[in-house]
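As the next step, I needed to go through one protein, both as residues and as discrete backbone shape codes, included below for the reader:
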Amino acid sequence: MGIAEVIALIVVAAGAGTLGTMLGLGGGIFLVPILSLVFDIPLRSAIAASAISVVANSVSGSRIYLQARYTNVRLAYVLLVPTATGAIVGGVLATSMPLAALKIVFATLLITIAYIMVRRRNPGAIPVARSRAPDPLRLIGRYVDGPAGDVVTYVPRRVRYGFPMASLGGVASGLFGIGGGPVIVPVMNLLMRVPVKAAASTSSFMVGMTASASALIYYSRGHVDPVVTVISVAGIIVGARVGARLASKLRQDLLVVLFVVVLTVLAFSMYLDAFGVL
């Protein structure tokens, strides 16, 4: 790998980390298709590099979110049980699936996530639950938001339905090395009615632990390319720090538009690659 290619890979990984951290997606959702389509890296090696990079992304970005108190740590630990289990299942499936099928499934996931985000009328306008709402698991969250210092208080709803959906996020993490954030964030935000900033930061805290479960499987099967992984991790760490700081300054609606456009382009490119067009 030449110097120019190394620099390009670092820049791409940093961009993926920035976007991924701002949306709580871990960066892998952008990194995997770009590594496979642009840099011609074998898909399973790209997934393995992404899974390990997501761990670094989570560690780097979560510290800032924790300091801002956006992260609902108790909710994260509750949801980690099904997501980690699903990640192990997904990792086993990914190492045995035909590559073309894996690409098609991944592209379909990208399109589905983009569609879900488009359907949201206002990404930031999620009704906030009152602190006196039923909360048997003591999952109530609070954080200070905006320049006026408004205190946002919420109680996650429909937690029992969030469990099986979170397990699907874990399976997606294992299959594609994405940490589960693209599934977990919409589940928390749309189903459990957790405000978007809290959902993104809580997901960012979770995805590293979720991805580590599947990363071990890829390593044991020999799919980890040390050079690609180290470069990806370096770029992701830089991007994660930038993304965590930008998250509170940028308008969420503009960020979601960019997110949807990028995902759609990557999805159709992955479809074309799966069918041998690219």
